Amino acid sequence: MLQQYKTTLFIFLIFTFASAQIDPDKVIIRKTLSEAWELDSIDKQGTFRLMSYRPIYFSAARWSSRRNTEPFNESGEFQSKDKNIFNNIETKFQISFKTKVIQGLLFGTGDLWVGYTQKAHWQVYNKTLSRAFREVNYEPEVMLNFPTKIPLFKGHIRTVGLTLNHQSNGKDIPTSRSWNRIILNIGYEYKNWNINFRPWYRMPDDEDENPGITRSVGDAELEVATHFGKHEFYTIINHSFSTLEKGNIQLNYVFPIHGHLRGHAQVFQGYGETLIDYNIQQTTIGIGVSFANW
Fold first, then answer.
1. Phi, psi for 48 (deg, rounded to 5)
2. pLDDT per residue as tens digits for the range 229-239
3. Which residues define the annotated binding site for Ca(2+)?
């Protein structure tokens, strides 16, 4: 456990130090889809360059309207009888990286990427639980992207791709949670607006630890982002095609502090903020700092 704390603090300090060294006049608030995925020839950077993928942030305080004191899943097989004494205030952080491993697949147009995202909820203010990590979600991915420039309304569909996604919390039964998906990604761009639509197919699992996850979390994601000067806003919506009453929405506001260091306010409402909470509805509010966005 002590090693986990050291690793977390080390990562946080590296990003804080690196952010403070950047000239604020050279800060790029949001990359275009071409810059993010190297779609156009002018943006090609080759392979095996490590770069940010999803937003990287640290929320010093995250408040929840509902504590999941008895995690369970709908099958009952993985039900936990433990009475977990969680605080409704904790810290949350997310780190995310990607790298291109093959450039110019399939007639020289496609690129193969690998990505990794880790999201952690840390009961750092909870002395009763020895400041333990409540939930850590691990998400490795393999992504095949193709550049496009299809006119749509006043903008363009700039990328179409497929992703093989695995997400798990690395725990043992009864609180183990995981699922595998094949995700279609469609990226649309108009002026300073980026829209990504990601419907997915959940792959069958003989030992299903969360059988109702698509009913709670959904089977598609919509991400909409824009910026005004150095202020950035992005929304992530997950919803199901089969039910209308569940899903979730996450609202994010990123604002300048100093150099590349920016503040980050986040509001979440709905189901599945973490895998262990996939069938728990809650509202959460977090405040912290942001290091990198989409």
1. 60, 40
2. 899 999 999 99
3. 130, 176
